[in-house]
Amino acid sequence: MKLLQLLRGYWSLIATILLFGGYLAFEFDVYADSKDASPERERGDLLRLLTVSSVMMFGFMVLSLRRVLDHGRERTMRTDAELRARAVERTDILTGLANRLRFEELVADTLSEFSKYGAQFVVLFIDLDGFKPVNDTHGHAAGDAVLREVAARLTTHAEDAVCVARLGGDEFSVCAKTAHGVQHPMRLASTLLEAIERTIPFEDKQLAVSATIGVAICTDEMQSASDLLKAADSAMYAGKRGGRGQVVLYGSKPQAVTWSSPRVA
Hey, which residues are catalytic here? Predict the structure, then answer.
């Protein structure tokens, strides 16, 4: 099958070679048989043979160059298509943010930087509060508008973010580089919470949602992206149980959380 495809791609080149070879064979045969030809006739036949040969060789080179260029263009198009497909696989269609797969890849890369340089990174797990009533009352179009606006606000306000992602449904996550300690990560999370809680215009309505945010700071004990996400997720669910609409920091001990106030200055 591959051989047939290759021959199909070079059919014009093969046809040209066969035609050229047949013509040369014919000319040399005629030339060999014309023993009684005059010198002028011989020179004319030779000149005609050389002229046709030059034209055919030029055509051969043009076709070869064209095939090389076509092959390069096809390879570029195939590479571009593969890159687009890869991007689509890692992008949330509704919001344009990274999806969970891409987020976990970037967090894994971030962990390798943490191990090399000791920089501090945090993962925020953000779950919207009050999204379902908005979606049920005003319809899916309103719900989609809320998700897109929340995505835009997270992207705008997530300072030093490595990645902002929609994990699915009304869940988002942010991976960001922060100053060492607790204050900067908590201030970042509070800034994002305040941005989310601003009303969202939709048609003639003002839609309102809040969020509960779990914060996990990268430590030596967290060896994978899934560890960080689980820690931030655990802190977020603790916040849900404690009243929603607040920021919760995951503690250094397994399943322990340090509670923040709903607003951190």
Answer: 170
Tracing tokens 């809320």 back to the chain, one arrives at 146
Q: What's the mean pLDDT in 120-149?
A: 94
CATH 3.30.710.10 fits 100-259, yes or no: no
β-pairing verdict for 247-250 and 210-217: parallel
Instruction: Report phi then psi at 236, rounded to 5.
Output: -65, -45
136 contacts 124 by C-beta, under 8 angstroms? no
pLDDT at 244: 82
Q: Kindly report the number of other CB atoms within 10 A of residue 62's CB atom.
A: 11
pLDDT(253) > 60: no
Q: Which residue has the tokens 């045969």?
A: 29
Do the Cβ atoms of 199 and 206 come closer than 8 Å? yes
Q: Give, in degrees to the nearest 5, the angle at Cα 36 between 30 and 38.
A: 95
CB 130 within 8 A of CB 208: yes
Whole-number Å distance between alpha carbons of 229 and 226 = 5
Question: At residue 129, does pLDDT exceed 90?
Answer: yes
Instruction: Parse the chain into domains and list their residue ranges.
Output: 2-89, 100-259
What is the phi/psi pair of residue 130, to 5°? 85, 10
Q: Is the pLDDT of residue 155 over 80?
A: yes
43 by DSSP, 3-state: which? Answer: helix
Question: How far, in Å, are 12, 36, 190 from residue 103 at the CA level?
Answer: 49, 85, 21
Enter the DSSP assignment of 204: T
